[in-house]
Amino acid sequence: MAVVLARSLRVGDIKDPVALFKAYSTEKIHGLERRVHDEMEQKKKELRQMVGERYRKLMQVADTIGDMKL
Fold it and tell me: Which family does it belong to (predicted)?
């Protein structure tokens, strides 16, 4: 149940941590923390992948431009 309620909480809606602790049990807050941490790790992974792809494309473009000059 804690995980279900934690999923209904939106991280962007959390403005006051004190109010969060007044409204929810520590178990529910731990569920939210786990979800936020998992989302954060997923976003890091996606960002690394995107940067790698963009870098490869940039290198291909640079090679193409170099070939055009020859």
Answer: Belongs to the COG1 family.
| 70: helix, strand or coil | coil
pLDDT tens per residue across all 70 residues of the chain: 444 455 566 777 778 888 888 888 999 889 888 988 999 999 999 999 999 999 999 999 999 999 997 6
How many angstroms separate the CA atoms of 34 and 67, rounded?
50
Cα separations (Å) of 35 from 29, 32, 59? Answer: 10, 5, 36
Token pair for 37: 């941490």
Residue in the structure block whose two tokens are 């804690």 = 2
Compute φ and ψ for 10, nearest 5 degrees: -105, 130
Whether the Cβ atoms of residue 6 and residue 35 lie closer than 8 Å to each other = yes
